[in-house]
Structures are given as structure tokens and as C-alpha cells.
């Protein structure tokens, strides 16, 4: 129910190269006087999960009858349709259109009867309230956003937050929940919160690190609801399932429900990845949490890698451990960073359901290539990933890739293409990074990787 404030996975690129301090004006990246309009994504196209229905049934049970903390949920609870949603608290201009797109997808892909109602409708089942970021983090320091049952606003949450009334394990059915989203954040972060928190407010309450193709995963690679997620929600609201059912009662029904909703899964891949030990989760959260010293985060990342190796994993959890180690060792140990990214990339690339994770690794590798004066290699890495990143609707990653590509084109002397690519990147950056200050900071960070701008 918490979307964690992990270290942004696409930051720190300038660590690949010496910092560009006091650059001569001739070598600075040419910034436009005003940024182009913000770009937004068109209709979402998702792919169904490739796993067997037996594996999907286990995923559903683990998502639905346990919380992120590890506490068991005795029964399944859900809303009785139709479900109504209202927004309060001075939402920014991007929230309403992104919410309406999401609600349309839930109706179309998951078959859930859900719609928005006016802000003044206090009877709404779900209240989405934007809260000043500092105030939200003062009460829940690690959360980017979160959802709470039985209440309909921030004032009510502050009054009852230590009361059992807001304990999910005490519910017998869902009738009212509140989602809290920080106000002063980029449009993409608001949208990501909408997808994860609305999905958990109406459906499963757990996150599983073993899931490579889901927003129900705290690695935060997938930011918009996937084909897997929509199937889980569709099962959650299947007519056979009712409020108050136990895990065993739901388990008996799942084979028939999945056979009807996902017939392709009768012949899907039988792989089921085992449970994730709490020791690994603790290590990853320590490595990627925002309030820990860098040295301790690095030690925690190494612990996560060691635990993954001891578990004998070859899936995305081992790759994510390596990815975290690569990110955290960028500034202090570039050789370890590069080796970790390469190994993570090999693991991700070997699996059909981790294409987006492969793109994140490719971005880091493209940054290394640009910094090393290998622009053609950087461009090849980026071009191979652009369709995947666009399909995943990750504007910040897409903008970063295009910024790196523009610097690589500049290094090749292809000035007109570099300028056009940079302009394309800025449109996506408006959505991914938000304020003009943040966009320009990212552009300057990427430009410092260009050897020509470093004067090397």
C-alpha cells in the first residue's frame, strides 16, 4: 500500500565521467530559451502474461492474502460494484486526464465498473487527495504515496492513523478508502502513484519482488498497469469470488476462473519463482531507501547480491540486486558498477518478460559508452530500447535516452539530428521530470558525459 521513495533508478549518470566544472561557454549544451510543449502517451497496449495459469494462481493468492509487511490477510475483501472515485486537494493539470485514462482502462481491460464523480460527492468509494509533499513525508517518511482504508481525507487520516480503523486486516469488505499523493511532483510520478495505489485500493494489497511484469513490485520498473495486473484485477472481480472468502476457498475457484479468463495460460510456461526471504527485502530497502548513508546503502546492496547468490536465483531478483549495486557504486567504483550492470543486463535480456528492465540497464551502458567516446555504440544501445520504453510509458527514461542520443549525435558531428533529438527529449522530459529547473538539470547532467563538452 506504500509506493516507496527509492533512489531514482535513472539518476547519477554524471558519475560515469569527470564532473564538468566551469565549462567554457562553447562546450556547454545549447539550451532553448523556452521548453517545447509537454508530450503525453497515446492509448496503452499491453501484452498478456506468458506464465501458466497454475503459476498465475499462486501469484494471485500471494498478492491477495498477504500484505507488504508480511502480515497475513485472513479473508479477501473488495468493493461491491459500481465503484466511484473523486479527487480533492488542488490536483495539478495532469492528474485528471491521467486518472480518466486509467479508469477507462480498468473498465475496458479488467471489466470493472468504476467511474469518477464530482469532488463534492463525499459518498465516493475512493477519495484521491493531493497533499503537500513535505507534510506527507513528515507523517510517512518513506512513502511516495499510499492508500488507507475506511477514511475519505487527509484530516481524517491524521486523526485516526494509529487507530485499528485503518488496519487492512480488520476489514470484512471495502466501502471507502483514501489515496494520498504528493502535490509538488512531476506528472509522471503522479500518474505512477495513481496506477499503483488505485490498483491496490480495489485489488491485491501485496507487492512481490519476483513479479517481473507488474506494478505490484517495489522495484518500480513497471509504472503503469500491465497485462498481468489487469488479469489479476479481472480475477479479483470475477463473479465467483465474494467478500469474506478465505485463501483455501479462493484457491479452489482459481483454476476455473483462469481457464475462462486466460485460456492461453493452460499451455503457458510452468515456471513459478519461490518466495523472497525477508532478509533480501530488508537489504534492498536499505540499499535503495532515501534516508541511509551512502556507505551503508552500498553494503546493503552487496548483502542483497550475496543473498541472491545463496538462494541460487537466476531471475529478476538477482539482476535487481546487481542493478542496485551498479547504481550505488557508480561514483566510488566504476569497474564494479560496469561489471554489475553487464551481469544484470545479461540476466534481464535472457527473459522475455524483463524487456523494460533491460532498457534501464541499456541506458546506463549507453551513458558509459558516451562518456568513453563511443557514440555509435551508445546510439545502437538506445535505438534498440526506444520501442520498449515508449510502450511502457516511461517518459523520464525515454527523455534520458534521447538526451544521451543527442549528445552522441553531437559527438559524431551530426548537429541537425542532435538538435532535433534534444528537442524531442525535452517534450518527454516535461512529463517525466516536471519543472523546467529539473528538466534543465537533467539535460546538463547528460551533457557532462560528452567528452567534447568536458574538453577531453
Give your account of this protein's structure:
- With 456 residues, the chain is α/β, with parallel strands linked by helices.
- The protein folds into 2 domains: 14-41 and 277-454, Serine Threonine Protein Phosphatase 5, Tetratricopeptide repeat, CATH 1.25.40.10; 53-267, Collagenase (Catalytic Domain) (3-Layer(aba) Sandwich).
- It contains 17 helices and 6 strands.
- The protein has helices at residues 53-64, 95-109, 133-139, 154-160, 187-202, 227-236, 247-261, 278-288, 294-311, 316-328, 334-349, 355-371, 375-391, 395-411, 415-433, 436-447, 451-454; strands at 2-4, 83-88, 114-116, 126-131, 143-149, 177-182.
- It has a 6-stranded mixed β-sheet with strand order 1-5-6-4-2-3, with helices on both faces.
- α14 (395-411) crosses α16 (436-447).
- The longest helix is centred in the last third of the chain and has 19 residues, at 415-433.
- The radius of gyration is 22 Å and the shape is globular.
- The protein starts with a strand and ends with a helix.
- The relative contact order is 0.15.
- The model is unreliable at 5-27 (pLDDT under 50).
Please count the beta strands (DSSP E, at least 2 residues each): 6
Q: Largest sheet at a glance?
A: 6 strands, mixed
- H and E string: EHEHEEHEHEHHHHHHHHHHHHH
Instruction: Indicate the overall shape.
Output: globular
Figure out the total of helices.
17
Q: Could you name the CATH class of the largest domain?
A: Alpha Beta
CATH topology of the largest domain, which one? Collagenase (Catalytic Domain)
According to CATH, the homologous superfamily of the largest domain is Collagenase (Catalytic Domain)
Amino acid at each position: 500500500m506504500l509506493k516507496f521513495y527509492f533512489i531514482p533508478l535513472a539518476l547519477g549518470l554524471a558519475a560515469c565521467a569527470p564532473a564538468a566544472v566551469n565549462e567554457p561557454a562553447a562546450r556547454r549544451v545549447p539550451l532553448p530559451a523556452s521548453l517545447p510543449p509537454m508530450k503525453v502517451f497515446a492509448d496503452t497496449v499491453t501484452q498478456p502474461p506468458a506464465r501458466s495459469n497454475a503459476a498465475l494462481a499462486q501469484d494471485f493468492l500471494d498478492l491477495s492474502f498477504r500484505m507488504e509487511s508480511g502480515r497475513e490477510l485472513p479473508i479477501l475483501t473488495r468493493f461491491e460494484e459500481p465503484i466511484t472515485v473523486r479527487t480533492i486537494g488542488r490536483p495539478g493539470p495532469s492528474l485528471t486526464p491521467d486518472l480518466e485514462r486509467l479508469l477507462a482502462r480498468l473498465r475496458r481491460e479488467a471489466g470493472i465498473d468504476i467511474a469518477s464523480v464530482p469532488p463534492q460527492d463525499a459518498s465516493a468509494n475512493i477519495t484521491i487527495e493531493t497533499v503537500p509533499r513535505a507534510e506527507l513525508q513528515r507523517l510517512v517518511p518513506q512513502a511516495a504515496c499510499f492508500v488507507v482504508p475506511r477514511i475519505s481525507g487527509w484530516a481524517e487520516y491524521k486523526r485516526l492513523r494509529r487507530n485499528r480503523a485503518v488496519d487492512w486486516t480488520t476489514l470484512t469488505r471495502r466501502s471507502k478508502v483514501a489515496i494520498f499523493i504528493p502535490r509538488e511532483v512531476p506528472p509522471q510520478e503522479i500518474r505512477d502513484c495513481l496506477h499503483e495505489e488505485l490498483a491496490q485500493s480495489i485489488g491485491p494489497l501485496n507487492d512481490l519482488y519476483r513479479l517481473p511484469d507488474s506494478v505490484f513490485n517495489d522495484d518500480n520498473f513497471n509504472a503503469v498497469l500491465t497485462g498481468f495486473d489487469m488479469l489479476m484485477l479481472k480475477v479479483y472481480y470475477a463473479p465467483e469470488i465474494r467478500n469474506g472468502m478465505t485463501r483455501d476457498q479462493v484457491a479452489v475457484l482459481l483454476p476455473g476462473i483462469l481457464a475462462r479468463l486466460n485460456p492461453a495460460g493452460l499451455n503457458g510456461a510452468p515456471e513459478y519463482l519461490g518466495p523472497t526471504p525477508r532478509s533480501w527485502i530488508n537489504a534492498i530497502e536499505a540499499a535503495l531507501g532515501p534516508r541511509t548513508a551512502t556507505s551503508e546503502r552500498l553494503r546493503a546492496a552487496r548483502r542483497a547480491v550475496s543473498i541472491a547468490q545463496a538462494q541460487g536465483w537466476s531471475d529478476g531478483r538477482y539482476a535487481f540486486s546487481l542493478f542496485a549495486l551498479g547504481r550505488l557504486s557508480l561514483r566510488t567504483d566504476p569497474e564494479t558498477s560496469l561489471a554489475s550492470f553487464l551481469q544484470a543486463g545479461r540476466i534481464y535480456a535472457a527473459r522475455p518478460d524483463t524487456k523494460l528492465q533491460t532498457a534501464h540497464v541499456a541506458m546506463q551502458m549507453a551513458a558509459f559508452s558516451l562518456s568513453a567516446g563511443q557514440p555509435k555504440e551508445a546510439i545502437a544501445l538506445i535505438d534498440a530500447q526506444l520501442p520498449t520504453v515508449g510502450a511502457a510509458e516511461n517518459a523520464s527514461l525515454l527523455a534520458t535516452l534521447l538526451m544521451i542520443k543527442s549528445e552522441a549525435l553531437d559527438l559524431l558531428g551530426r548537429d541537425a539530428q542532435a538538435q532535433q533529438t534534444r528537442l524531442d527529449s525535452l517534450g518527454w522530459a516535461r512529463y517525466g521530470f516536471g519543472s523546467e529547473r529539473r528538466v534543465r538539470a537533467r539535460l546538463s547532467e547528460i551533457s557532462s558525459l560528452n567528452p567534447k563538452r568536458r574538453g577531453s
